[in-house]
Amino acid sequence: MKLTFSKKWLLLWLLPAWCMAVQVKPDAPGTYVVKKGDTLWDISSLYLEQPWQWPELWRNNPTISNPHLIFPGDELRLTVNADGEPELLVSRAKPLIKISPTVERMQKSAEPVPVLPWSVIEPYLEHGLVMTEEAYLGLPKLLGDYDGGIRFAEGDLVLGQNDAGLDDMIVLRKQNVLYDMDDNPLGVQVRHVADASLVPTEEVSMHLVRVKASNFEATQGDRLASADTLPLGEEIRLTPAGQQRGFVIGNLREHNMMGKLDVVALDLGEYQNMQPGTVMGIYQPGPSISARDKPEYVAGTTWFSKALGEEEALTAPPMKIGELVVFKVFDKTSYALITKASKMVTRGAIVAHP
Fold first, then answer.
1. How far is CA 38 from CA 43, 248, 341, in A?
2. Tell me: the pLDDT tens digits for 12-56?
3. Keywords, A to Z (predicted)?
4. Are the C-beta atoms of residues 127 and 191 closer than 8 Å to each other?
5. C-alpha span between 354 and 348 (Å, rounded)
6. Which listed site, 24, 161, 192, 342, has its alpha carbon 20 to 30 Å from 298?
7. Cα distance between residue 86 and residue 151, in whole Å
8. Using CA atoms, how far apart are residues 49 and 335, in angstroms rounded to an integer?
9. Number of other CB atoms surrounding residue 66 within 10 Å
10. CA nearest neighbour of 39 among 109, 118, 125
């Protein structure tokens, strides 16, 4: 008998659950000094088979108030509490003292190690946005400059459409459209390419803007939006996914195959209670195979697969091939970093509890 989609998910639910006892790796270090360049995920992976259980290692530890705030120089010590459960203790490094030009003693504030590698996710956190097609098309355009140019760099004076009366603006460019697995549009991926400021003019049908700091060259047809259009970054707190289930639907670079440390887009967002720090497993959908005299793979729900009949095809359960961590969430979609992958990840990979 052919397994239905709901039965396929049932098999997925029967995979080992995330809500199990903390499993410390046999080779976990007894002590570890946090170094600059470490990430919280890296450190968690040193100790745990399931890194998203990081907060569980701290339990009610009075030596630290937030297990997601670990600093370079901190010494972590693995111990066992009175109940025989593993836990971590921290010896916090003393603040560095520097002498200012005025010879005053000042404490140098340390930055906590990031949860994920900042160099990989920073372009998406700082310069990535997903909005509806209608919202993007409703934004005023960059029209051109006085020299007939089509590309504009920092300092250039550019004619813009429709004076919105905004002093501080950003220049946005459409990358591509995100579609769910049924080809319904979920939003437009937009990139922040530059900043701009309004130059006063008496013309009401258009305005002049000065291109300011730029990440890329602005081009004719790019859109102008308020500087506060970019959402503020949220704190990333590791937590395993609950009942959320969805799919990898692509990435900003439009690659067909993704691996470890690639950023992917999911068809899950705020509407599905996704939050930065949600950890999910990545599962490869199982193939459907006809059970006739000569077994054959059945691709999708074609007329051929339907003609086989329910009793003529079997569908293998999904197989876990990796993990990812969500770091930026929009209404219907989210961005996530692949932290582990035993096989290449493609569009249509299932994401669910880890």
1. 7, 27, 20
2. 443 444 445 778 888 989 899 998 888 888 888 898 888 888 888
3. Signal
4. yes
5. 17
6. 342
7. 58
8. 24
9. 11
10. 118
